[in-house]
Amino acid sequence: MRYSIITVLIILSVIFMISSCCEGNIEPEAQNGKLSIEFVHYNNGTELIFDSLAYTNEAGNNYLVNEIQYFISDVTLHKPNGSSILLNSWSDIHYIDTDIKETKTHTYRDEVPEGVYNSISFTFGIDEDKNQSLMFVNAPESFMFWPENLGGGYHYMKLNGKWINEIGLQAPFNFHLGIGQIYHSFPDSISGFVQNYFGVNLENEPIIIKNTETTNIKLIMNVENWFSTPHIYDHNYWGGDIMQKQDAMQQAVDNGNDVFNYTIN
Amino acid sequence: MKVYRAISILVIALLLTGCEDKTTPTPHIPTPYIIDIPFGFPTELNIPIDNPLTVEGIELGRYLFYDGRLSGRTHPDSLMSCATCHRQEKSFEAGIDHPKFPGGFPFGISGLHTHHVTLPMINLVWNKTGYGWSGFLYKDNPNENMRNLEDMVRLAVLAKDELDGDTTQIKELFQSIDGYPLLFEKAFGSKEITFQIIEKAIAQFIRTLISSNSKFDKYMRGEEQLTQSELNGFVLFTTEEGADCFHCHGGYGNPLFTTHLYYNNGKDTIFIDPMDRFSISNDPMDHGAYKATSLRNIELQGPYMHDGRYSTLEEVIDFYSHDLKQSPYINPLMHHIINGGIQLTPNEKTDLLNFIRTLRDDEFLTNNEFSKPLKFPDE
């Protein structure tokens, strides 16, 4: 791990030196544009209102959402001819926090060749190779760390809220996704880990990238879909916490496939 | 560790030399002070551009921090310094056994009690979120005078329940004390003392108060092993089905042991404190919310919580275990509320406590560079 921090430092210093001391002799790259994503959060088709008990999921749980924090990585644009471009600079493992405005739009660092793309895909969370403990030492990403003994790395998502439980009390739920565990005997003996990150593939309007321009798209998380199709997710059944409940996280992963869609701004 | 340190120095050297400007040096160039980033710690620091750390600035700041004349008074009975309430051996809190403040509830020079108990000064250079229990000092504050540690120095000096001083009187007093003007010149280039420079010097000193050598740090770096009980406690601390402290208080991936964020952790049902997080954020969910303090050195930092309601860590653990109070404002991360708490067994409580004790850093508590200077400049 130490080495990757060092590598980042070296790369940063090199970039710094190049950009600060050799100005003027780099020609702008031709035929490339940029992609910028605005991350928005909906519930039942309209913008999510936080801390409001206005929502009922498929299982009938009346609930509110307090905050959502998650990672999106490996964003890839695909052309109809099958070619694709992966935006995977280190800084392009992007963290979104509904309480931090700056995280809710991200202009990808990697350049995108000009052209018409007909779909976009990404990893929800962080894949196994990249999801290494201590790779984010700075806040707010560092606050997403996933405990070592539960598999390490980072939470893919924290979706925190409350629901009205069976006895009418406001019960908190921490709908947290990350590396799952297989227990030999709960909770002390873990015999294996499960990578729960998953790929999302979206096809809607064509995404047109133009030379030297930035194309803006809106990536929409439809929160209610975390709790339906194919599984009806019931907070009363799973309780307030799921980091150590692989069966619950598996439902979330399966449900996650239709949580996102996009529109062109 | 060594390699890492060498590289960071190299990088900084490159940065400094990469684009040197060609101005001729002035006679008093203070020596830059570089913070080694400890293993696993954030690389981003809260150091304002207009107050870089220098060896001379820190030295001056340390004198001022400990000098009772910072109250602007010289009579032995009315001396008060930052260190009166922020004691090194208590991780720069007042401490429950404070000689002047019974139970660790401090009062200022005028006898007025502070609104909350003290906060520690530990690893504050990594706090980019906000200072104070409610985070009333923060980066984007529309009030430019309420943003950073520099401002905290002034606020503490002016506060009726703290030094109750007068900035003009204080700067004039220090101007007249032998030895100080020279230290100001060495650090900031002029013998003429301004209060703004006093703020800068003390803030610099506070930014060097770094703790990164507890037993747990050594465990993280692979230098020392934890006992079985400490390890059990660590697992409890970092599991949802266990004690679930890590979401707010950090762990291996966040060795500051705080998020510096504000939560209502379920102590009450009625919230009437006019200085909670709500008073700053105006977010209704922030009623009764306060900063989740770092648990480093926490065993020395009683009394606990913003109002000092618990005297021991045992009481705090009992509270989290079965005394949580339901309210609409309790933070969702306190999901154990439906059972009234985390319901630890006596053995688990011992394990959790033993783990929390591994966060004590004796080197920090006794480091000579942080302690009261042997002599003041005029002695």
Task: Describe the structure in brief.
The complex is a heterodimer of chains A (265) and B (379). Helices cover 13% and strands 40% of the residues of chain A. By secondary structure, chain A is mainly beta.
Count the E strands of chain B: 2
- Just name the CATH architecture of the largest domain in chain B: Orthogonal Bundle
Residue windows where pLDDT falls under 50 for at least 5 positions of chain B: 18-22
- How many domains of chain B? The number is 2
Q: Can you say what the CATH homologous superfamily of the largest domain in chain B is? A: Cytochrome c-like domain
Give the overall shape of chain A. globular
Question: What is the name of the CATH topology of the largest domain in chain B?
Answer: Cytochrome Bc1 Complex, Chain D, domain 2
Structural class of the helix and strand makeup of chain B? mainly alpha
Main β-sheet of chain B, in a few words?
2 strands, antiparallel
Strand-residue proportion of chain B: under 5%
Taking the sheet with the most strands of chain A, its summary is: 8 strands, antiparallel
Category by helix and strand content of chain A:
mainly beta
Shape of chain B: globular
CATH class of the largest domain in chain B: Mainly Alpha
Intertermini distance of chain B: 40 Å
In total, the number of domains of chain A comes to 1
